[in-house]
Amino acid sequence: MRLATRLILYIALSSVIPLAVLGGGASTVAVNRILEKTADLQGRTAEAIAVHVDTWVRLQLELVHLQTRALAIDRLSDAAKAAVPRLVLEQTPAARMVCLLDSDGTLTGPPVTSPTRADPAAAARALSRALEAAPVTRGPLVVSEPYRVPPTDTPSLGLATRSEGTTRIALELSLAPIAERVRVDRDEGVQVAILAANGDIVLGGGDLIEPSSVAELLGGTAVDVRYETSGGVAVVAATAPVLPVGWTVVVAEPVERSAR
Cα separation of 32 and 39, whole Å? Predict the structure, then answer.
């Protein structure tokens, strides 16, 4: 090869190599910026869902508290007490069932249910067990972990007045309004879940959201969380807490999808 030809090739290669390096660096920067924007969007979504759930839960607690305080059930006659479950059910839109319990958690009368509750006795037993299992005290009320009563797929939340008197008012609340919010925020490739304080998935979920992968983040706020699922999928996620009940909202999607 002539010297002139070799010189031309050398000059050409000298100009191509820096451009290739620059192109690769620019691509990496672009991907990182996309991932940063994805993480920010995920954080905003998780926070918005958490605020929605927080507001809903606080509203239910306040609604039940105001009713039970106004009723002063231990001052009522037995006949008047028997009418309380129906009254509370009608004034609490999210309630599936209302019943009266004694201080030991035993039913003192038949439960009153909404038309969607198929087996009132089984629902009452499930509510009593949920309230005894891992209750959280919120002022004058006791709140259970979410639980399910077959054949209903949507989980329930148990509330009851604290056992300061001889009679307690207990309610089973449907989490259907929260389930609908989670459904709306889910998208193709984007998964949303609400986890209980013990790490169990309450609503939503998917193969990208493994409780073990986000166990250390429960109850906290985090963005740009990276982990790999048991199936080998790289995930970017964000979390936000629901303080009244100790739940955690998780929003996740594959890193490969978010980098597109």
Answer: 10
- Report d(CA 259, CA 34) in Å as an integer: 6
Note the CATH number of domain 58-174. Answer: 3.30.450.20
- What are the residue ranges of helices labelled H in 134-199? 176-185
**Tell me, what's the pLDDT at 62?**
94
Domains of the chain: which residue ranges?
31-55+177-258, 58-174
Total H helices, total E strands in the chain: 5, 11
Determine the distance from the C-alpha atom of residue 141 to the mean position of all C-alpha atoms in its chain, rounded to a whole number: 21
For residue 114, give both structure tokens.
Answer: 């909404």
Look at residue 1 in the predicted model and tell me its pLDDT.
46
Rg of the chain, C-alpha, whole Å: 27
Residues 217, 218, 223, 224: is their CA dihedral positive or negative?
positive
**Helix 3-71 to helix 78-91 angle, to the nearest 10 degrees?**
150
Count CB atoms within 10 A of the CB of residue 230. Answer: 9
| Topology alike, domains 31-55+177-258 and 58-174 | yes
Q: What is the pTM of this model?
A: 0.80
112-113, strands of its sheet edge to edge: 112-113, 95-102, 167-174, 156-161, 141-143, 136-138
**CATH classification code of 31-55+177-258:** 3.30.450.20
Query: What confidence score (pLDDT) does residue 3 get?
Result: 37
Amino acid at 215: A
* Cα dihedral value 101, 105, 109, 110, nearest 10: 110
- Preceding peptide of 18 cis, ω within 30°: no
